[in-house]
Specification:
It is globular, with a radius of gyration of 19 Å. The chain has a single domain, classed as TolB, C-terminal domain (Neuraminidase), CATH 2.120.10. The chain is mainly beta and 338 residues long. It has 1 helix and 27 strands.
Length: 338
């Protein structure tokens, strides 16, 4: 099959995609040691300490935002600096470029050091939500491949760089807006780093601006608690909030302080929640497994700074994006949504 025919076939099979300048992914093992650290016997109910941490993709700059596509039995993840979303197919194990550019698509990016997408989230109907660093917005990828901007401003001012999001069962979206994607913070229109709510009617509410570097975000199974990770080396924490009836936040509490762990690589970042309410939160060392009460049960040690994680396949597999590679590991629990 010639090159033109091959590209046309890929476009038909994979949907919205450009292969121009796409970075060729690989699955060659990275030279890092990965282990599971057991800090409490309760960890045994969630994961085996000898569970295999299998690498499924390698060769990127910074992987982020994993999201499981139930309809197509595949994992999507962001490679932010390379401005692309990649796809791992569970049946074949093949990794391909799903979309490039995923974020900024202008003639010259003067304002973003991280032009691609970050956090991703699949809607029940199979459409994709994405935090677009380069364009400082959240968009929805439609079935025809077009992008619909859901939110890009708060009270007429452009966001810094929406980073991560979580969607409640009623369609409400909670998201964080740190400055990580901005090349020059002096052009910021919003001077704080907020956590926001996007209602189903399109209205935007600032929930809190107490964070210096808000990052990952998650909801408890009953949706009565919101968790936010802060990637600040001076205050690397995971915070919890009560979600009130009107979906405002109150009762801000420190869930877990990761400062004593910061000799290991990484900062609090993305997270996934299992059906029992445990947080699988990336942070110093890799993935921290934290109870809803704030007790650290153990860590999946990745050997490199680790960005995010998400449950997939039958709900018991945890996919982990860490620096330049992506891994998966089998657990004994299931993520929300299964």
């Amino acid at each position: 099959m010639n090159r033109i025919c091959l590209c046309l076939c890929l476009i038909v099979l994979l949907g919205p995609i450009s292969l121009v300048d796409a970075q060729a992914p690989t699955t060659q093992p990275s030279e890092v040691k990965r282990t599971i650290e057991r800090l409490d016997p309760a960890l045994d109910q969630l994961i085996d300490v000898d569970a295999a941490i299998e690498q499924i993709a390698d060769g990127y700059k910074w992987t982020e935002g994993p999201a499981w596509d139930k309809k197509n039995n595949a994992l999507l993840f962001s490679d932010i600096p390379n401005n692309q979303i990649c796809k791992w197919d569970a049946a074949s194990g093949e990794v391909t470029v799903f979309m490039k550019p995923s974020g900024y698509d202008g003639p010259k990016n003067q304002f973003s050091k991280e032009p691609g997408t970050n956090g991703l989230w699949f809607l029940p109907d199979g459409r994709l939500l994405a935090c677009d660093h380069g364009n400082r917005r959240i968009f929805r990828l439609e079935k025809d491949g077009s992008k619909t901007t859901l939110v890009e401003r708060y009270e007429t001012k452009r966001f810094n760089s929406p980073n991560d999001l979580v969607r409640a069962s009623d369609g409400t979206i909670f998201f964080t807006d740190p400055p990580y994607g901005m090349l020059d913070e002096s052009v910021r229109e919003i001077q704080w780093h907020g956590v926001y709510r996007l209602a189903t009617d399109g209205s935007v509410t600032l929930l809190t601006k107490e964070f210096t570097r808000p990052n990952g975000i998650g909801l408890s199974p009953d949706e009565k608690t919101l968790y936010v990770a802060q990637s600040d080396k001076e205050k690397p924490i995971y915070q919890s909030f009560k979600v009130n009836e009107d979906q405002t936040l109150s009762d801000s509490k420190l869930l877990f302080d990761a400062k004593p762990l910061t000799d290991d690589p990484g900062m609090p970042d993305g997270m996934a929640i299992d059906q029992s309410g445990n947080l699988w939160a990336t942070g110093p060392g890799g993935v921290l497994i934290i109870t809803p009460e704030g007790k650290l049960l153990g860590r999946i040690m990745m050997g490199k700074p680790t960005a995010n994680c998400a449950f997939g396949e039958d709900g018991t597999t945890l996919f982990i994006t860490s620096s330049n590679f992506v891994c998966k590991v089998k657990t004994k629990t299931k993520g929300l949504g299964w």
